[in-house]
């Protein structure tokens, strides 16, 4: 497999990726295309894939940290972030680096990074609100949220953000708290409904409406994501718990509306029958 041809960017960065799974690989392709130098480490051995892409793979995390990365991009799962960070030998860092996470929950990521990282490390919290499926045809007009949590090296931070600007993302600067509150109402609810539809085993029928086709597609999209992601959205976004309660309340409210409407219709029918019998 040969890597894509490079596209010029504002400044070439040495970017180290922690967790080279599907999402890490997805982001790496755009970074390679823009001419950045990549290295990666992961629990799984991706040495051959990295060699094919022109990426240096490190099985030794200490050697990875000592490779003088400008940026260390954390592509771990929500549930494993804390454990991964606490196991990293940060004393191996040769120079301060900009640590960037791409998790779907931001307060948890921010608090964990500030708690665990060395004080001289910069912190940028981000959420590319797309993935390998929604971003397969390019990232133009797709949302990219970020907060400069602790940034002293503005040049490195700006160069990293430029990667997403070049790809045409809609750049949204907001606080981690604001992100989580909004994401609980959108991303978490979408995942919750998708999981409910999956448990119901809804399938296409010969008489599908466009709306039902959208529900079937939602179910399929959510099944492509791991249950760990859904669990992380619930466990580590403090606003998600209230949104789940709101969903349950709305469902119960709907259940009570239907029998009431049925009773009202029966009353109207009885009144009509009485009138017609006179």
From TrEMBL:
| Cross-referenced PROSITE patterns | PDH_ADH
Where is coiled-coil annotated? none
List the Gene3D superfamilies hit by this protein, alphabetically. Answer: NAD(P)-binding Rossmann-like Domain
What SUPFAM superfamilies does this protein's entry cite? Answer: NAD(P)-binding Rossmann-fold domains (SSF51735)
UniProt xrefs under InterPro entries? NAD(P)-bd_dom_sf (IPR036291), PDH_N (IPR046826), Prephen_DH (IPR003099), TYRAAT1/2 (IPR045011), TYRAAT2_C (IPR059064)
Under Pfam families, the record lists:
PDH_N, TYRAAT1_C
Q: Name one GO biological process term.
A: tyrosine biosynthetic process
Report the residue ranges that make up the Prephenate/arogenate dehydrogenase domain in this protein.
13-278
Asked whether the UniProt record includes Transmembrane helix among its keywords, one would answer yes
Q: Which UniProt keywords apply?
A: Membrane, Oxidoreductase, Transmembrane, Transmembrane helix
Per its record, what are the GO molecular function terms? arogenate dehydrogenase (NADP+) activity; NAD+ binding; prephenate dehydrogenase (NAD+) activity; prephenate dehydrogenase (NADP+) activity
Keyword Phosphoprotein set for record: no
Residue intervals passing through the bilayer: 12-32
Recorded protein name is Arogenate dehydrogenase 1, chloroplastic-like
> Which organism is this protein's natural source?
Rhodamnia argentea
Gene name of this polypeptide? LOC115748168
């Amino acid at each position: 497999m040969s890597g894509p041809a490079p596209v010029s960017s504002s400044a070439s960065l040495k970017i180290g990726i922690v967790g080279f799974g599907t999402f890490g690989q997805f982001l790496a392709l755009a970074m390679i295309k823009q001419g950045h130098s990549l290295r990666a480490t992961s629990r799984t051995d991706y040495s051959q894939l990295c060699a094919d892409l022109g990426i240096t793979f490190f099985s030794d995390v200490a050697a990875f940290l000592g490779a003088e990365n400008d940026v260390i991009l954390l592509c771990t799962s929500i549930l494993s972030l804390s454990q991964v960070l606490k196991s990293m030998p940060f004393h191996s860092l040769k120079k301060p680096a900009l640590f960037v996470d791409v998790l779907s929950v931001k307060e948890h990521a921010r608090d964990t990074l500030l708690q665990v990282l060395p004080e001289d490390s910069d912190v940028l919290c981000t959420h590319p609100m797309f993935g390998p499926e929604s971003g397969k045809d390019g990232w133009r007009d797709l949302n990219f949220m970020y907060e400069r949590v602790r940034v002293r090296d503005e040049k490195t931070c700006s160069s990293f953000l430029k990667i997403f600007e070049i790809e045409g993302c809609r750049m949204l600067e907001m606080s981690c708290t604001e992100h989580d509150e909004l994401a609980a109402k959108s991303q978490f609810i979408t995942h919750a409904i998708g999981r409910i539809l999956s448990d119901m085993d809804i399938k296409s029928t010969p008489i599908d409406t466009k709306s039902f086709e959208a529900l079937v597609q939602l179910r399929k999209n959510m099944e492509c994501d791991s249950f760990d992601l859904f669990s992380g959205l619930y466990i580590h976004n403090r606003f998600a718990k209230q949104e789940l309660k709101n969903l349950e309340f709305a469902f119960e409210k709907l259940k009570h509306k239907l029998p009431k409407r049925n009773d009202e219709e029966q009353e109207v029918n009885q009144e009509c029958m009485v009138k017609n019998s006179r």
